[in-house]
């Protein structure tokens, strides 16, 4: 079996680091990756690698201190460890048309090109000498710097042959550099490699499992399971596969029940353009720190990534002394993000305007689910008070924007002033779904179904014009035209002043519940 090109990347962002002499390591082996023995700090915890990630195969990060530990330094950057795999091009592999053979080639062939092209951000590596002699491998040491920071300094220990390169790469504050280099070098010198081994038993195990089950898309589910790292686990439901690292089993079971109930509600309100059976991953991180390490954005509590087909959130339970944990925030996020996943597929893989997409996500966050069914949808506790105060202040374009502008916002415009726009988008969807003034007005009550149905039909028409097997980027003009057509059909003859006045009156009188 041909060996593959492996790169091990240790990224450590530690302003205060432990002494190398006191460092404790844990041994791991990953024969399917060609790693016979690997030592990493014992206090690191596994972080899942993003689905579809081309180079990184394993990722660990030092466990964050307990949030309640007042003695801990919660501002400290935590050390990270990554294993990356970059296949080396064959010697007889032809160059791409127009490609030049230069140091600045855009092909990743080793540590320095991976650092420059995959990481970017001004990082550069300079060779400073040889490493420890290893039979069959060439070893080198590098000093690594970034032009974006004068106080960050890095080191790489690189081992390579004609088929593979292994690099231990660390960086930290310059004050800790000398001590950290000793720690990184020691770990790199103990790495043992061999040809990758295929785990045929595991593959057959899951193939047998899904042959005996009724779950759809077994290939996708097997792929998710094979990418699991300890202590992450997986469970299946009809339309999802759940990947989790939380000990709260009752929370997991409720998430599994509720998201299937929400899907039934979505289908009833938004029948898909054609039947779809797409399976998505729901990833539940154990806490906010793990969620952020995995890729969660600051100030967010969850997200749907249509590229990786993952809905990601974390166990946001809060608990007061002597009380049961309050999981309400976890489900507010779940119901919101699950709508994004559903609506994307129901329209033929097209995201609606943000007022509709984010507004409905927040609308469904107010769902009350009992015995597997959505019984009612109430006021969103995160948005109602915000928009009510903004409307009461009454400053157009400062506290809120005209509805005519809001519904035409692109995603970038909508996100640029996220808090106010999210609150206003929710209030518009809630108004159009529940206000008596809307129910008694045929034109207004048709806005939401007209928008959705036109979006579906218009996008299907535009795609038909393009023909089959159209690359994603080529579909962007069709998406833009479909959104514009849906907006025109839904609001083309609406009296904006009349609609906006009714929306304001309704919002001002909302009974806003107190957040727990």
Q: Can you walk through the features of this model?
A:
This protein has about 525 residues and is α+β, with helices and mostly antiparallel strands. It folds into three domains: about 5-95 and about 100-195, 3-Layer(aba) Sandwich (Protein Transport Mog1p, Chain A); about 200-345, 3-Layer(aba) Sandwich (Glutaredoxin); about 355-515, no CATH class. The protein is built from 17 helices and 18 strands. It has helices at about 110-120, 175-190, 200-210, 220-225, 250-270, 290-295, 330-345, 355-365, 385-395, 405, 410-415, 420-435, 435-440, 440-445, 445-465, 475-490, 495-510; strands spanning about 5-10, 25-30, 35-40, 45, 55-60, 80-85, 125-130, 140-145, 150-160, 165-175, 190-195, 235, 240-245, 280-285, 300-305, 310-315, 365-370, 375. The protein has a five-stranded mixed β-sheet with strand order 12-13-14-16-15, with helices on both faces. Helix 5 (about 250-270) packs parallel to helix 7 and helix 7 crosses helix 8. The longest helix has 21 residues, at about 250-270. It is elongated, with a radius of gyration of 26 Å. The chain starts with 5 loop residues before the first strand and ends in an 8-residue tail after the last helix.
């Amino acid at each position: 079996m041909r060996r593959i090109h492996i790169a091990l990347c240790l990224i450590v962002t530690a302003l205060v680091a432990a002494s190398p002499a006191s460092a404790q390591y844990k041994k791991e082996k990953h024969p399917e990756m060609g790693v016979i023995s690997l030592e990493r700090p014992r206090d690191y915890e596994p972080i899942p690698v993003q689905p579809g990630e081309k180079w990184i195969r394993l990722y660990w990060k030092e466990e964050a201190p307990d949030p309640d530990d007042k003695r801990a330094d919660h501002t400290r950057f935590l050390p990270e460890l990554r294993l990356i795999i970059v296949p080396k091009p064959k010697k007889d592999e032809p160059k791409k048309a127009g490609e030049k053979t230069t140091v600045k080639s855009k092909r990743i062939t080793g540590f320095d090109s991976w650092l420059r092209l995959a990481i970017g951000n001004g990082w550069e590596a300079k060779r400073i000498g040889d490493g420890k002699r290893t039979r069959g491998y060439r070893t080198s040491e590098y000093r690594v710097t970034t032009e974006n920071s004068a106080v960050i300094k890095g080191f790489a220990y690189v081992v390579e042959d004609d088929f593979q390169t292994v690099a231990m790469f660390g960086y930290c504050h310059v004050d800790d550099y000398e001590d950290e280099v000793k720690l990184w070098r020691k770990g790199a010198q103990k790495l043992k490699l061999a040809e990758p081994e295929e785990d045929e038993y595991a593959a057959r195990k899951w193939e047998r499992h899904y042959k005996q089950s009724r779950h759809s898309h077994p290939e996708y589910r097997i792929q998710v399971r094979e990418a699991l790292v300890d202590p992450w686990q997986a469970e299946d439901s009809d339309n999802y596969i759940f990947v989790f690292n939380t000990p709260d089993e009752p929370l997991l079971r409720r998430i599994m029940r509720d998201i299937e109930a929400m899907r039934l509600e979505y289908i009833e309100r938004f029948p898909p353009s054609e039947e779809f059976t797409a399976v998505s991953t729901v990833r539940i991180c154990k806490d906010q720190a793990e969620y952020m390490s995995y890729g969660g954005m600051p100030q967010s509590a969850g997200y749907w990534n249509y590229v990786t087909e993952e809905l990601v959130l974390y166990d946001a339970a809060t608990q007061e002394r002597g009380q049961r944990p309050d999981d309400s925030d976890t489900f507010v996020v779940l119901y919101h993000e699950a709508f994004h996943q559903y609506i994307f597929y129901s329209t033929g893989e097209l995201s609606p305007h943000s007022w509709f997409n984010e507004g409905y996500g927040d609308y469904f966050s107010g769902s009350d689910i009992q015995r597997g069914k959505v019984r009612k949808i109430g006021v969103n506790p995160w948005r109602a008070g915000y928009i009510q105060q903004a409307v009461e202040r009454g400053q157009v374009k400062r506290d809120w924007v005209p509805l005519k502008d809001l519904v035409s916002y692109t995603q970038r415009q909508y996100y640029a002033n996220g808090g106010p726009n999210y609150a206003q988008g929710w209030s518009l969807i809630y108004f159009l779904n529940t206000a008596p003034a809307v129910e008694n007005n045929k034109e207004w009550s048709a806005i939401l179904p007209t928008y959705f149905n036109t979006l579906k039909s218009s996008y299907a028409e535009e795609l038909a014009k393009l023909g089959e097997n159209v690359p994603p980027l080529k579909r962007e003009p069709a998406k833009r035209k479909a959104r514009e057509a849906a907006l025109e059909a839904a609001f083309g003859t609406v009296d904006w002043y009349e609609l906006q006045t009714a929306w304001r009156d309704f919002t001002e009188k909302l009974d806003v519940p107190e957040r727990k």
